[in-house]
Task: inverse folding
């Protein structure tokens, strides 16, 4: 079943006087939102007890929790000590999603740094391979999904091809296809259903069916410049795109069942409801 979710709380949630993410469970349920992505982008501070409480509340409402790992993870860092730290952040994120009763953690894979693209990608792939053993040792077996995200800035690793390469390494590595990022990085490449379909086809050529059908998706309109992503926008934007309608048509036509998380700037609840409504009108 396709799921539509939000990344964090919307402006409207706070405008209505709510303050705590615990309250977001019933708030999302009431709006027909299926999933909630909890961000630890700036660090993992939530304690175990609170995480379990949040997990229970969301479970009661039937809203699934996913986790976004810290932004400073970098699997192409030349310093092995820093790679150990990145592994640690991924494990801590998995612990949170376990407490939440979920199974998906989204990870920004790496930045290019001073290396050539080729060297940076090779290092990222090598360290992603090293992560397999780290997950095994920590007991995060089959069922957990580490979703590597396509990135919006040219200096970041995470083109569609690079994400496919990493995701080919292990059954737990899933793609998080951020279509807003792809559009921003590639200067507005996503205009039509055919453009979206090209990406889905490329994934299907190299990845098992479940990783395409059940992929993680981030969607928002994003302002971009020559170096790629500048900032997230809302669905009100008419300049940068991309548009969600053709993507929903492709999901529908191919009977895909992704987790579509809306990352609009402050209107993620309203915008994900718009996507869901459009999808089910097809
Ligand atoms: Zn992200």
Result:
């Amino acid at each position: 079943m396709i799921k539509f979710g939000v990344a964090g709380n919307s402006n409207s949630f706070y405008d209505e006087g709510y303050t705590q993410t615990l309250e977001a469970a019933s708030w999302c349920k009431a709006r027909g939102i299926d999933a909630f992505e909890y961000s630890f982008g700036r660090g993992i501070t939530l304690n175990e007890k609170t995480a379990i409480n949040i997990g229970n509340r969301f479970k009661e409402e039937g809203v699934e929790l996913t986790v976004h790992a810290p932004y400073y993870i970098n699997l192409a860092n030349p310093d092995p000590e820093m790679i150990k730290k990145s592994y640690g952040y991924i494990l801590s994120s998995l612990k949170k999603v376990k407490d939440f009763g979920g199974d998906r953690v989204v990870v920004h894979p790496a930045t290019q740094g001073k290396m050539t693209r080729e060297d940076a990608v090779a290092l990222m792939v090598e360290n992603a391979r090293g992560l397999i053993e780290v997950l095994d040792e920590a007991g995060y077996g089959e069922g957990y999904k580490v979703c590597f995200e396509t990135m919006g800035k040219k200096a970041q690793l995470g083109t569609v091809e690079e994400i496919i390469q990493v995701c080919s390494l292990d059954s737990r590595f899933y793609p998080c296809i951020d279509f807003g990022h792809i559009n921003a990085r590639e200067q507005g490449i996503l205009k039509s259903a055919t453009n979206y379909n090209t990406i889905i086809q490329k994934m299907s050529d190299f990845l098992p069916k479940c990783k395409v059908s059940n992929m993680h998706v981030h969607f928002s309109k994003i302002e971009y410049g020559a170096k790629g992503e500048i900032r997230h926008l809302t669905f009100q934007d008419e300049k940068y795109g991309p548009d969600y309608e053709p993507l929903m048509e492709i999901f529908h036509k191919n009977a895909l069942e992704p987790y579509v998380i809306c990352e609009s700037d402050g209107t993620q609840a309203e915008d994900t409801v718009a996507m869901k409504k459009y999808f089910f009108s097809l």
In short: Residues 3-281 form a domain with the TIM Barrel fold (CATH 3.20.20.150). The chain is about 45% helix and 20% strand. The mean pLDDT is 98.
